[in-house]
Structure prediction request, 189 residues.
Amino acid sequence: MNAVAPVGHGSEAVSIAAERRWAIVVGLIIALLVAMMVVTGLHWAAMPPSRVETVDVRTLHLKGEFVESNLGTALGQDGKVTVRLIAQQYSFQPQCIVVPAETPVTFRATATDAIHGFVVGTTNANTMLIPGFVSTFTTSFKKPGEHLMPCHEYCGTGHEAMWARVQVLPSDEFAAKARGEERLSCVPR
Ligand code: CUA
Prediction:
């Protein structure tokens, strides 16, 4: 009987020590996370994004770059490919985007009503769209094919039904299609 009591006390001491160790570990993890938040917060506050481009949502459809006739894919005189699109609850315009493969493509996009976003299939083409701001990035698509382009920011009850398609054409096929067309899209007419 004498042997039992010390063993019981011993295991209680062990479990208290173990709990204390865990409390210290968890406390350190929390302190580390808070420190990361503070450091990144201060870092970003000290270094705002280098380039902010704004656009007036109220006149978006009436004048300037994002009027309906200017949306879609443009092949510039210099051979540069630019895709312009807008997002609104709950669709993208154009609904089907054509781009050439193996060519740098610059996306310029904005939103009219709420925060939206898109990602093109499994490619690295991925951005947020915020009303009043122009989101832009340049990427190139490795091979021809078709991708789904869903909205990936929750934007309201129709969010999950909001998506477009992206058709990646071989570059010669794209060039042939672009000839004589001001703005390209693959929306059926
Ligand atoms: Cu638009 Cu979610």
About this structure: The longest helix spans residues 4-46. Residues 87, 90, 116, 151, 153-155, 159, 162 surround dinuclear copper ion (CB under 6 Å). The longest strand covers residues 81-88. The chain has a mean pLDDT of 90.
